[in-house]
Design goal:
The chain is an all-alpha fold and 240 residues long. It has 10 helices and 2 strands, in the order H-H-H-H-E-H-H-H-H-E-H-H. It has a two-stranded antiparallel sheet with strand order 1-2.
């Protein structure tokens, strides 16, 4: 149903722009955050760990599942067309809390030396770029990842776009190329600090759980089509 009144429509258009920009900035910050931790690497031991930020990072999985149940399930009063962007807002907020509350310890666990810094960070940002590209060709475009398209559809009273099973481009080699790129980037660093290791471990667990949950949703939605695709393309990567 289209939004009634010019004020409601204007607010929805504002929300669409805000959620698009905010989610893209969150994605950039997500990939910049490990580089920020690397920049604070020091051989001087600093025993304090960012317990609050770490706790929020570890809870990202449960928060994501809870927000999906609330906003995208059959419960709650949020209009169906606005549930996906509402869930995205919760995820963005949780990530920015992590970024704000995580104080780098600077304790170095291993250091590959400056000679490896250039090549490693080139591969790191290449993985980040591949993640962004994978999101842009997934579903029905980047606007659906950010939630912007959902809000615009609701504002205009347009039916939601029907997304088919993603099998083209990078999805011919991996069922979850964006998550795979994230996993690769988490461990690409010439210097590993203690908090960098904790962040990488927490986000690796989160990515693995997200991929498994996405596979279950896709099998429920697409049935035999997804099972056939799953038999050809592995969850993470294949050159075949």
């Amino acid at each position: 149903m289209p939004a009634r009144g010019s004020l409601a429509r204007a607010l929805l258009y504002g929300w669409a722009g805000l959620t698009h920009v905010w989610t893209l900035l969150t994605l950039v910050a997500l990939f910049y955050f490990p580089v920020y931790l690397d920049s604070h690497a020091s051989r001087t031991p600093r025993p304090a760990l960012p317990w609050v930020g770490m706790s929020i990072a570890v809870s990202l999985g449960p928060v994501d599942r809870l927000s999906r149940r609330i906003f995208e399930g059959d419960v709650g009063s949020c209009p169906r067309g606005l549930r996906a962007p509402a869930r995205r807002a919760v995820t963005n907020l949780a990530l920015w809390l992590v970024f704000s509350l995580w104080a780098p310890t600077g304790r170095v666990l291993w250091d590959a030396g400056p000679a490896w810094a250039g090549p490693t960070y080139f591969l790191y940002w290449l993985a980040a770029g591949l993640a962004g590209y994978a999101l842009s060709v997934g579903d029905t475009g980047l606007g659906y990842f950010t939630g912007c398209a959902h809000v615009l559809e609701y504002a205009r009273g347009a039916p939601p776009a029907v997304a088919g099973l993603r099998t083209r481009s990078l999805y011919r080699y991996s069922r979850h190329p964006a998550l795979l790129s994230l996993l690769v980037s988490l461990w690409l660093t010439p210097v590993m600090t203690l908090d960098r290791l904790i962040w990488a471990a927490a986000m690796t667990c989160h990515a693995i759980l997200c991929a498994a949950a996405a596979d279950r949703r896709l099998e429920t939605r697409f049935g035999d089509e997804f099972r056939s695709y799953r038999s050809r393309v592995p969850r993470w990567f294949s050159l075949g």
